[in-house]
Design a protein that fits this description.
about 0% strand, about 190 residues, 8 helices
């Protein structure tokens, strides 16, 4: 009688703790990544608040603003992807050990997605808040600022956009980590 070994996923809280531990160990790089996300989302949010300005005369055209905003978000996406790829490279042995202990590929993907989601939530909320408030102050001093409901909506949209962006950026690194053969990962010496 031959039995087949089947990988079993640990509970979600294990993946959550693994993601938090990874951020804690690589704190400075993750801080820089979060700041990159925060800057991109701050620019995105400030452009959103500016679009609600009562007097947009003399400013750049909407297509130029969309182009600049899109470019800043793509640059953030590349930065987050790069940071997550470096994290995968550094964690070859850890990933191999986890896989040898029975974790499935989907567990590895969950860990990287949760890590990206946590980075995205922190960076996006901070960036959306800072960008929105600064642009609101500028508009309040010059042409008239939009109301509080508009500001809260822009912060919420900026946070969601940043979180989605960081999760999208984590797709390629997470798939790369999950497809890594466990034995080969244990042999790697970095």
């Amino acid at each position: 009688m031959q039995t087949e070994f089947k990988n079993v996923d640990p509970p979600m809280w294990v993946a959550w703790n693994q993601a938090k531990a990874s951020i804690r160990v690589r704190f400075l790089r993750m801080l820089i990544t979060s700041l990159g996300v925060a800057l991109g989302i701050a620019f995105f949010s400030s452009m959103q608040v500016l679009s609600f300005s009562p007097q947009k005369a003399g400013m750049q055209s909407d297509s130029q603003m969309h182009w600049l905003t899109g470019t800043s978000l793509v640059m953030c996406l590349v930065g987050v992807t790069n940071s997550m790829l470096m994290s995968v490279t550094e964690r070859y042995r850890e990933i191999g050990t986890i896989k040898c202990l029975g974790a499935s590929d989907s567990f590895i993907v969950k860990v990287f997605f949760l890590e990206a989601l946590l980075l995205g939530a922190i960076g996006s909320f901070g960036g959306a808040l800072v960008g929105t408030v600064l642009m609101w102050i500028v508009l309040a001093a010059t042409t008239g600022a939009p109301g509080f409901g508009t500001i809260a909506g822009v912060v919420a949209i900026g946070t969601v956009v940043g979180m989605v962006m960081t999760v999208i950026a984590a797709v390629a690194p997470a798939v790369q980590a999950s497809k890594m053969p466990a034995a080969a990962a244990l042999r790697v010496d970095i």
